[in-house]
Amino acid sequence: ATQLDAPKRARLALDRAAELRADDPRVLRQLAQLSDDDSDWNQSVELRARAAAAEPSEDSSSLLVEIGNIQEKRKYDDDEALVAFESALKADPNSLEAVRGAARIFRKKGNHTDLLRLLRRELELVTEARDVAGTHLDIARTLRQLEEPIELALAAYRQVLKLEPENAAALDGVEEVARELRRFDVIVEAFRDAPQTQANLAVLAEALQELEQWKEFADVRHKEAALREDTSERSRLLGDLARIYENELCDLEAATKVHREILAFNPAWHVSQDAVARLLEVQQSWPDLEAAWADELSRLGEEDTDKKISLHLRIGDLRERRLQDVEG
Fold first, then answer.
1. Contact predicate 286/315, CB 8 Å
2. From residue 152, how far is each of 159, 181, 219 by CA, in Å?
3. What is the phi/psi pair of residue 61, to 5°?
4. What is the predicted pLDDT for the residue at 15?
5. Contact, 229 vs 220, CB < 8 A?
6. Average pLDDT value for residue range 7-24
7. Is residue 324 predicted with pLDDT exceeding 90?
8. In this predicted model, what pLDDT tens digit does every residue of 236-292 receive, in sequence order?
9. What pLDDT shows up at residue 1?
């Protein structure tokens, strides 16, 4: 005999063992594995079923899980797979693989009620933080498919974020559900620890604005604007920030600083040009106002004659009335 005859010789030996003890679960298991190699799935299931009938509960449960996997993934029979997984759970209620197998079938069938029941059982069995977070996420998604209070889904999403603050799916879930409930405080809590991407900072800024938490809003909006590559969009965001400094925080100096920041990368932004002049005038910061107008004047082109004349007149009037510099 050659090495190539080994599988045949193994089967022959197992067949002889089966003749001596037909219901020996060890023999039946090994015969089933040989049937797997031959892709004889019907015999594979039959042999495992016979072995399961002769095994203690926990051992029979693992065999029934194997039958469920074969029915689902090899024979494509979800109904028979579910029978096997549920039988495995009866034999061993703590079989995580049986719970997950049955949950998988219920998910395929769209049976969200039974799926939720099994996911809650899975949550009792898993111990690794990653698995716990994943199960909470599955529970949240399943709750959204059922007519359950949406607060339950929100609580499940928040449990995920306690373990994985950067979990994108959970962040999306919190944003959607909390926005529906107008729980902007929950959005703030979740997105404070989220990765500081443009999208996440925008969500956090909006929630802070709804809560009128202006100081933190200002910090977040500034970070968001810094990530914007489009000049107009960045100018718009910083312009909004300047208005918050001016109208909500009553900090004219900070508002002026933001408008000057805009002009540093977008000199033609007329909103900030006008705002800087207005704010400096309100603050009676006359030398700075003169410098701002002079700077704007230096950036005008040859075609901006009317604007140049207007600025020269303003500077002259300012020097005469406020700076006592009629000869400047």
1. no
2. 11, 12, 32
3. -60, -45
4. 58
5. no
6. 55
7. no
8. 999 999 999 999 999 999 999 999 999 999 988 889 988 887 887 777 767 776 666
9. 45
**Higher confidence at residue 281 or residue 113?**
113
Q: What is the mean pLDDT of residues 50-72?
A: 89
**Quick one: tokens of 135?**
């199960």
Structure tokens at 266: 């977008």
Long-range Cβ contact pairs of 25-31 (< 8 A, separation 24 or more):
25/51, 25/52, 25/54, 25/55, 25/59, 28/54, 29/63
From first CA to last CA, the distance across the chain in angstroms is 112
Q: Which two tokens stand for residue 84?
A: 């096997």
Q: For residues 249 and 146, what is the distance between their CA atoms, to the nearest angstrom?
A: 44
Q: Are 171 and 204 in contact (CB under 8 A)?
A: no
Give the predicted TM-score (pTM) of the model.
0.78
**10 Å Cβ neighbour count for 97?**
19
Question: Which residues in 122-160 are b (16+ Cβ under 10 Å) and which e?
Answer: bbeebeeeeebbbbbbbbbbbbbeeeeebebbbbbbbbb
Neighbours of 273 (CB within 10 A): 19
Cβ atoms of 302 and 279 closer than 8 Å: no
* CA pair distance 34, 20, nearest whole angstrom: 19
Percentage of residues of the chain with pLDDT beyond 90: 63
Cβ neighbours around 3 below 10 Å, total: 6
| Distances from the Cα of 24 to the Cα of 17, 45, 70, 176, angstroms | 9, 16, 22, 56
